[in-house]
Design a protein that fits this description.
The protein is 40% helix and 16% strand. By secondary structure, it is an alpha+beta fold. The radius of gyration is 24 Å and the shape is elongated.
């Protein structure tokens, strides 16, 4: 029998995942809201994916987080800022589709340009031969 893995719902995209893929956000005393990477803090907590996509969704609509944590007061701007700073440390939004293709073709163009430059240098007619 496989071991039971706790499942949690991301409040941004509403999909259910194992706890390790989500970051716990906990209601701290006095209406503060903090990230809880250890998942061990006391207090009411909620979960968001460790991706910029889901975090920016939540930070763009803090009322959602406030509701999920059953807070009576809006989340202090400083706490939102702290979460925003945390998001900056996450890997960029899933490298899928267009973003990835754009990056790859950019790299290919750069590589081709380098090759051309080398060829041109080799074909320099002023280079003495023999
Ligand atoms: Zn999510």
């Amino acid at each position: 029998m496989p071991k039971h893995i706790p499942q949690r719902t991301c409040i941004a995209c509403r999909s259910v995942h194992s706890k390790r893929e989500l970051l716990r956000i906990v209601r701290a005393p006095e209406g503060h809201v903090v990230a809880d990477p250890t998942g061990k803090r006391n207090g009411r907590g909620t979960y968001v994916h460790k991706t910029r996509e889901c975090f920016e969704n939540v930070l763009g609509a803090p009322g959602k987080l406030q509701h999920a944590l059953n807070l009576q007061t809006p989340i202090p701007p400083a706490d939102l800022l702290a979460l925003q700073n945390l998001v900056e440390t996450f890997p960029a939004t899933n490298m899928s589709g267009n973003a990835m293709n754009a990056q790859l073709s950019g790299a290919r163009r750069a590589a081709r340009k380098t090759t051309q430059t080398i060829k041109q240098a080799g074909a320099d007619p002023n280079t003495p031969t023999g």
